[in-house]
Amino acid sequence: MAFPTIHQFLTNLLHLPKTRALQLSISLLFFLNFLYLLTYFHHHSTSPPPPTSLLHLTTLSPPPHPRRNPSTSSKPWPILPSYLPWTPPANSSSSCESFFGNAFSRTSLILPRTSSASWFGCHYNAGLRSSVCEGGRVLMDPDKIRMSVGGERIDEVVGRSDEEELPVFLPGSFRVRRPIEVATPIRPVSEAFLDEFVPHGQVSRHTMRELFANMELVGRRDFNCNEWIEEPTLLVTRFEYANVFHTYTDWYSSYVSSRVTGLPARPNVVFLDGHARTQLEETWEALFSSIRFAKNFTGPVCFRHAVFVPLGYETAWFKGLSEPVHCQGASAQDLWANPDDSKTARLSEFGEMVKSAFDLPVERLRTLKPSSEYNVLFVRREDYLAHPRHGGKVESRLSNEQEIFDSLKTWASNHTDCQVNLINGLFAHMSMREQIRAIEDANVIIGAHGAGLTHVVSASPKTVILEIISSQFQRPHFQLISKWKGLDYHAINLPASSADPEEVIDRLKKIMKSIGC
Asked: In DSSP terms, which residues pair with 140 in a beta bridge?
């Protein structure tokens, strides 16, 4: 009887004054979070349940080992207004919940939990055709992973090839332990299992599949750890790590994996790649409890709870570029009251997670500014050194970008119907927090097609997007993100790479009129 009571309570919130409703909502979220943590730690402090689910796992005492990592303070999950429980819907395989990660519901337990051995299994999502896999007492031997060290400054490794930075997993690079001794290592994961749970799909090189194919099941004698990591840890391989759009797919996949596996706090992250350090690590560090490169460990390291994150290419963010993902953004409050398989609030939830990671408010009222004042953010593309193979020059998507910006600036300064603040979005020279804050404060976001527009995932609900698309970049990335986020989206499709300033101003005038200017 508890669920109808909560449901009725949340429905009634819609009819309360905003201040009172917000107070009651926060109180309820604290209460639900308390119950969730209580349940999690209860499952982690009692005897193991039957091995039918990996969602709640028993923490077991490790075998004797030389050293444990110092206890770190895991960051708590923030309270997010758009958060909905990560419980797969009944019609999970074809729903928007499935596409955005809440349907890793088919579980295969390869190694059941015991008091003296490793456990391992995968959760499969039929809609995405990928799996979140996890295990306990998992050993990683960085000496058996062929790749560069990673984490260097870009100027220190200029010219290093992409192949040097991607991992090659040798047999035994990851090991799990049997409760009995074995004469020779055994492969715990069959090719048939990989085809079913970790298919190649459209990924040209599936590094997680390669990892599992080279995993070994060994006895206690061959399971020796120099260090134990006690806190839950995400193991992530990144490909296009210097591109903001592709990195967002990795951030989102890591966030979903954390929720699917029921982690009680934000996990650590270990990069299974040897990429150089970029400014995007700032956001990895903000979103999660800590980051570390696999090659930074000395000798074999064991994880009490390891979560293997699906590649960013396997998220709806990327798959939606080549296959239909017919989903519309909606508020979490509406979906709680009226569930709809064709709608999602998951991008809003994640956008709030990004804002919260940088200590930005997640429930800001647009009325903080006078209604006659509006911010128009123009997202610029600038030259910067992105990675070791990059020449420091970004590809032009709008050949007369400066002319467009100058024309908009002149128009805004002479506009009398309302005050228009034109913001020069020089993202390459702004911290990630400053970028997200600029997105959050904008009433209208304008920009040429480019990865910086991925930040619209953190835009406020009433923000309007105007994308200027040259003929060479007719791609739906930001139209889709805007749709999945529930934002009003407009596009100017150019016959070449140059835009007509008057056409841009005319489109902006119409948008400004539609929002009350």
From this structure: 174, 301
